């Protein structure tokens, strides 16, 4: 596996740990629908939280959250709609981004952006 894939997996693990420590219940990780994938689906306060984890080994070019494009949002929303139908989940949905970047000492820093986008942003 390539180094960037290893880093991405580590970032997703850290994001899931962060969510658990902050009272979120992880429902599923790496949920796939067709070619679309949701990194983490969690639940908190009677809401379904759809989480896109974005990690960069450096913030020199763009911040991780800036990599969530309209195309990516469409993909996430499509997969989220399928999840809600498949699991008959009748709850409010929130879309979050967790950005992961290393600090100067190579410790991973989590930036949790709640309500980062709406399903309407997919249009």
Automatic annotation (TrEMBL):
SUPFAM superfamilies: Restriction endonuclease-like. The keyword Protein transport does not apply. One of its GO terms (molecular function) is endonuclease activity. Coiled coil: none annotated. The lineage of its organism: Bacteria, Pseudomonadati, Bacteroidota, Flavobacteriia, Flavobacteriales. It holds the Pfam family UPF0102. Transmembrane segments: none annotated. Keywords: Endonuclease, Hydrolase, Nuclease. It comes from the Bacteria. Belongs to the UPF0102 family. This is UPF0102 protein DRF67_17050. InterPro entries: Restrct_endonuc-II-like (IPR011335), tRNA_endonuc-like_dom_sf (IPR011856), UPF0102_YraN-like (IPR003509). The keyword Transferase does not apply.
């Amino acid at each position: 596996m390539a180094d960037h894939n290893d880093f991405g997996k580590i970032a997703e693990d850290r994001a899931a740990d962060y969510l658990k420590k902050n009272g979120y219940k992880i429902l599923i990780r790496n949920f796939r629908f067709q070619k679309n994938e949701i990194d983490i689906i969690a639940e908190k306060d009677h809401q379904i939280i759809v989480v896109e984890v974005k990690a960069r080994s450096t913030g020199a070019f763009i911040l991780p959250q800036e990599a969530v494009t309209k195309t990516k949002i469409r993909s996430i929303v499509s997969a989220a709609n399928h999840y809600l139908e498949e699991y008959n989940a009748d709850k409010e949905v929130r879309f979050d981004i967790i950005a992961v970047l290393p600090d100067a000492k190579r410790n991973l820093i989590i930036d949790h952006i709640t309500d980062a986008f709406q399903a309407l942003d997919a249009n």
